[in-house]
Design goal:
Helix content: 40-55%
Radius of gyration: 29 Å
Strand order of the largest sheet: 2-3-13-12-8-9
Strand content: 15-25%
Order of helices and strands: EHHHHHEEEEHHEEEEEEEHHHEH
Number of strands: 13
Largest sheet: 6 strands, antiparallel
């Protein structure tokens, strides 16, 4: 099942060192798979984002309360201590703290309360209206006004950030639509994390389509990061969507991916996306055969699980990455691996395989999957995300994508919920 293409198979490993994909070490035959049936009821897993969200809510509520704690504590300390201690001067912090979480009106109200409290405390210490009290009130009024203006500017920035976040979410929806939970004869579960803080889309990309006679899946990783990587990923996704329905086999799809990138480089040579290459793993799961066909263009081989047995697929001859500028000729090779009902296959990018701990040891993916062999498929992406974040010396510092494919023999298509799409699990 070979076809000819630019680029030798033996250069695939060298391309992986460019930061897009690492080579995988063979761990034995690929005739392995998982045990958890997709029809088995899965217990609900705790969303990975719930803990950070609760901490953020607590910090926000604490910030809202701090100005009033100052308004209560400062005068109390001033009354209970000697007159020369002057704890009332801490009231100037109240409007400044209010500007962090309250709006302009709330900040002005806190400042007015601070000024009123200062006025009430003055007679107890025998302070005259002029000049000490007036000078203190003037300073407090200036701080309050500055804090209110800062609060107003902060609110404008927050509105802008919300708009940018909504645009980014719309871009993710357009470029990387959520995977169906069930497609043809397989269940699909996704882990997707962009490396950039606050980003929704990175250089990793994925797509699964139900075609005549089976399911075709693409998982890939564009060289580098940023908008150029996203642009290259969108080009490859569009090409796959068109080719997957009509191409006679995986080599034909890979050829079209290569042709799409070449045409774009000719059309827009000034674009930085035109210089990017990408590692790609293509998979085809026929409805009437207990196998999965795999074609790797410089991408890490998947891990297949059957019961407690977990092994990395040994690809016979991986091809070079898509659009890698290597002017040689080599075939696309398709490997056929047993994949029966109940089996599991984890496809992943180098954000998983190249995660290292503080000592430089690579993430032990096979070992972890063996330990999760009895876990429902729904829990695997969340477990993997949390474990990678703990294991990595710098957490999840690279685009991280994993697609868990579970063969169950069902023929329905079920889309994920909106919340599942947003958290990528």
């Amino acid at each position: 099942m070979d076809t000819r293409r630019p680029g030798p198979a033996e250069t695939a490993g060298a391309a992986g060192t460019a930061g897009t994909a690492g080579t995988t070490s063979p761990a034995g035959a690929a005739g392995t798979a998982g045990t958890a049936s997709a029809s088995r009821p899965a217990r609900a897993s705790r969303p990975a984002h719930r803990g950070p969200r609760r901490r953020a809510e607590f910090r926000y509520l604490l910030g809202r309360a701090l100005p009033f704690l100052v308004l209560a504590a400062a005068p109390l300390a001033d009354v209970l201590t000697a007159p020369e201690e002057r704890f009332d001067r801490f009231l100037i912090a109240a409007p400044a703290l209010a500007a962090v979480t309250w709006g302009a009106r709330g900040t002005l109200a806190v400042g007015a309360l601070a000024m009123g409290t200062t006025t009430l405390l003055a007679p107890g210490r025998g302070e005259r209206l002029f000049p000490a009290l007036l000078a203190g009130q003037t300073v407090l009024a200036v701080v309050t006004l500055a804090a209110a203006l800062s609060s107003q500017a902060r609110q404008r920035r927050e509105v802008e950030l919300r708009q940018v976040s909504e645009v980014a979410e719309a871009a993710q929806w357009a470029v990387l639509r959520p995977l169906p939970r069930r497609l043809g004869s397989v269940d699909l579960r996704l882990l997707y994390e962009a490396s950039a803080v606050g980003a929704h889309v990175g250089g990793d990309f994925y797509k699964a389509l139900k075609v005549r006679g089976g399911v075709r899946i693409m998982l890939g990783d564009v060289q580098g990061k940023g908008l150029a990587a996203v642009e290259a990923a969108s080009l490859l996704l569009g090409s796959f969507r068109e080719a997957a329905y009509t191409a006679p086999g995986l080599p034909a799809i890979a050829e079209r991916l290569e042709a799409s990138m070449a045409r774009y480089a000719e059309r827009a040579p000034e674009s930085t996306a035109a210089d990017r290459f990408a590692t790609v793993l293509l998979a085809e799961i026929p409805d009437d055969e207990p196998v999965v066909r795999l074609l790797s263009c410089g991408h890490p081989a998947p891990v297949v699980q059957r019961g407690p047995v977990v092994r990395t697929v040994e690809l016979s001859s991986p091809s070079v990455p898509i659009h890698l500028p290597v002017p040689v000729d080599a075939p696309f090779t398709v490997d056929e691996v047993p994949f029966a009902p109940g089996d599991r296959m984890l496809m992943f990018t180098d954000g998983v395989s190249e995660t290292r701990d503080g000592r430089g040891a690579f993430y032990p993916l096979e070992q972890r999957l063996r330990g999760w062999a009895a876990e429902p498929a729904d829990r695997i992406p969340g477990l993997l995300k949390e474990d990678l974040a703990r294991y990595g010396a710098h957490g999840l510092d690279d685009d991280t994508t994993a697609v868990l494919v579970v063969r169950d023999g069902a023929g329905e298509e079920t889309l994920p919920t909106h919340e599942e799409h947003l958290i990528g699990v």
